[in-house]
Amino acid sequence: MVTENLGLARVYATVIDAKGEESGGPMNRLRSDIPGCLVRFPMEPGGTGDSAASRNRDAPAGCFISIQRDWGAAPILNQGGCELVLTSEQTGSARVTVIAMGPGLQDGRDTTSVTVVPGKARKLRLRWSVKGSQCVVKIADEHNGR
Q: Residue 146 domain-assigned?
């Protein structure tokens, strides 16, 4: 997942799994409770060197969240989705891109842009699955019903 800030406001991203465990958030309160979930930020232009971020080399500063089995157990992958909560201390916009990939599978991708208002968390529902040889990804905006 890549969260790109589209303005001057810093938008923070937190992944919440089905058990309510969290990874992400503001740098001074960064959580990393979800096994197999790595949070890196700020993401500078040019990506972080990880495969998903490398595909988005012109991304402005933001957050890169990777969930991978290679780092040990990653039960969140078997849950077929998670909640992504965006917060900001000032009104700001962000573009969220979710990329799913796997060995022998075609990558799946979905992108949405949102505005985040201080004091009001913006919740997105992320879903992923495999159909045939294709990774399928969907971002549902709980605010707009998208």
A: no
Q: b/e map of 30-58 (b: 16 or more CB within 10 Å)?
A: ebeebbbbebebebeeebbeeebbeebee
Instruction: Give backbone dihedrals phi and psi of 78, rounded to 5 degrees, phi first.
Output: -75, -15
Instruction: With respect to residue 51, please indicate whether it lies within any of the assigned structural domains.
Output: yes
pTM of whole model > 0.85?
A: no
In a domain, 111, yes or no: yes
What mean pLDDT is predicted for residues 94-115? Answer: 90
Choice among 67-71, 95-99, 108-112 with the minimum mean pLDDT: 67-71
Query: What is the domain count for the chain?
Result: 1
For residue 137, the enclosing domain spans 2-141
pLDDT in tens, 2-27: 888 887 788 889 999 999 999 988 87
| Gap between the Cα atoms of 52 and 55, Å rounded | 5
Residue 91 lies in a domain: yes
Collapse the DSSP code of 48 into the 3-class scheme (helix H, G, I; strand E, B; otherwise coil) and give the result. Answer: coil
